[in-house]
Design a protein that fits this description.
Layout lengths: L7 H21 L5 H11 L7 E5 L2 E5 L1 H20 L1 H11 L1 H20 L9 H20 L9 H14 L3 H10 L4 H10 L1 H11 L20 H22 L21 H5 L2 H22 L1 H8 L4 H15 L2 H13 L12 H28 L6 H26 L5 H16 L2 H9 L7 H11 L4 H19 L1
Antiparallel strand pairs: 1-2
Helix pairs in contact: 1-6, 1-7, 2-8, 3-6, 3-19, 3-20, 4-5, 4-6, 4-19, 5-6, 5-9, 5-10, 6-7, 7-16, 7-18, 13-17, 13-18, 13-19, 13-20, 13-21, 13-22, 14-15, 15-18, 16-17, 16-18, 17-18, 17-21, 17-22
């Protein structure tokens, strides 16, 4: 048992950080390794009854386009649930705290793993709720772990992006299952093992995580955990309220336009509604949505795309599927660079009169711009119908996805009041989920009128991804207005 005094809290902080990274790395984002698992499910015969014999140019072939549609629909629904249910989960996390949110996440995640474990080709329909449960449980693991960044002050954004990188890298879990399957380990054994790992999540919940929230800025002598949380819960709540009041009285809200120079500025409390209706929230939502749609369509259609480019060679499809899954492991290595970009200003002296929030926003401009540029490059490579080029596409995809989700969480944490983080994070993910539903009609368009050729859809999405540059441009103009206003006063 760790002591609550002396060096104990620091050791506990590092244990919480490392165990949280392992949790996100091994479980949270497994749903995004779906393209790898599809290869195994096809081998096992899931939805194989939808394959029909067809004749193309006088040659008898097996047409499995309807099977591909089912797998694509499963991922579309799961990715939608992953994002859309982040909204109620965010409210749940803000209102009831860490323990309740994590217990819910553990329950649905375990249920999803058990559903796949006991599913068979005859009960393929179970994959629909199973993947959605895994997605919802995984995002709850991430949301409750993001607050650990509050324990590390000047490196807060770096820790947040590191967790998101671990979330991305966990999509390689299904690669491990695929490799084990090829060595004779059944799907049932693999998924039962993952379900049993819920004991580890329960241990972290009650021993290494706070009951409520980790406040920011972190108060002196703050402690939490199994032997500290009970006596500190009330103090934590008071500390959070004190921090909110202090930041509202001493710092200008980042997106609140102030009075003209020379007049007294009235600082008002930033409500959730005012955050939600701000232009900053709207442009950030657009930034996230267009790039997320591009990634979801790529993951959901990867298997049929590789089949199209390899002329149906199963050996090539397996090789490129493995390569895609291996690159996902690099997410945890890519994501911290985005956090370092956002935290770099903390080592510099701020301009006279510049608030910490404003400095955070200014540092976020480069991060937002780089993420948008990466998405355009990734989309161009994905749209080019050259099979060997897809190795580069995989690298750019994991780099961009790591920057995208890490940057999203870090930007919301620095740009809006901390008391609204769960609700705003959930709202932006939920609204972007509605946009992500466009992936299924895009897939239907590719499989139908376009005869399996995704070129035109990819070109359209590449053009659409250019809209992501509006967000960093708007933040840049806002920071310029703030600087001009400081100099005039």
């Amino acid at each position: 048992m760790l002591d609550c005094k002396g060096g104990g809290p620091r050791v506990r902080s590092w244990l919480t950080l490392i165990s949280g990274l392992l949790e996100c790395l091994g479980f949270a984002g497994a749903v995004f390794g779906w393209a790898t698992l599809v290869f195994v499910l096809k081998t096992e015969g899931y939805f194989s009854s939808l394959c029909v014999n067809a004749t193309i140019n006088g040659t008898a072939v097996e047409d499995c386009s309807r099977q591909d549609e089912q797998f694509s629909l499963i991922f579309t629904i799961a990715s939608f649930m992953n994002n859309f249910l982040t909204l109620p989960n965010g409210f749940l996390f803000d209102h009831f705290g860490t323990t309740v949110a994590r217990l819910l996440g553990i329950s649905v995640y375990t249920a999803g793993m058990l559903l796949i474990a006991f599913s068979t080709p005859a009960s393929s329909i179970l994959l629909f709720p199973a993947l959605s449960f895994i997605a919802v449980g995984g995002i709850l693991f991430l949301v409750t772990n993001i607050q650990v960044g509050n324990l590390f002050g000047a490196h807060r954004s770096t820790i947040i992006t590191l967790y998101n990188g671990a979330f991305d890298s966990s999509s390689a879990v299904f690669l491990v299952i695929k490799l084990l399957f090829e060595d004779g380990v059944s799907l049932r054994v693999s998924f039962l093992f993952l379900a049993c790992c819920s004991v580890i999540h329960l241990f972290r919940t009650f021993v290494l995580m706070p009951r409520t929230h980790i406040p920011y800025p972190l108060p002196e002598n703050y402690s939490y955990g199994v032997n500290c949380g009970v006596t500190r819960d009330y103090d934590v709540a008071k500390t959070e309220n004190k921090n909110i009041q202090t930041s509202e009285s001493e710092e200008e809200r980042p997106f609140k336009e102030t009075s003209v120079p020379g007049q007294n500025t009235v600082i008002t409390e930033r409500s959730f509604k005012s955050c939600l209706l701000s232009w900053f929230f709207f442009w950030h939502l657009l930034w996230l949505s267009v790039m997320q749609l591009r990634h979801y369509l790529f993951i959901g259609t990867l298997n049929p795309m590789l089949n199209h480019l390899s002329a149906g060679d199963p050996g090539l499809v397996s090789r490129y599927t493995n390569a895609f899954a291996f690159t996902q492991l690099c997410g945890i290595l890519c994501a911290p660079w985005n956090g370092l970009i956002m935290d770099r200003h903390k080592r510099k002296q701020r301009e006279p009169g510049q608030s910490e929030r404003e400095a955070d926003l200014k540092a976020a401009i480069l991060s937002l711009s780089l993420t948008a540029l990466q998405c355009v490059l990734f989309s161009v490579c994905a749209a080019t119908p050259i099979l060997p080029l897809q190795y580069l596409t995989f690298i750019l995809q994991v780099l961009n996805r790591s920057f995208l989700y890490g940057g999203n969480a870090a930007f919301i944490s620095v740009a809006f009041p901390s008391e609204h983080f769960g609700k705003l994070f959930g709202t932006v993910m939920a609204l972007s989920a509605v946009i992500s539903l466009l992936q299924y009609p895009c897939f239907a368009l590719i499989k139908g009128p376009l005869d399996g050729d995704p070129l035109y859809v990819n070109v359209g999405l590449t053009v659409l991804s250019l809209l992501a540059f509006i967000n960093p441009l708007y933040v840049y103009l806002h920071c310029r207005r703030q600087a001009a206003q400081r100099s005039s006063t």
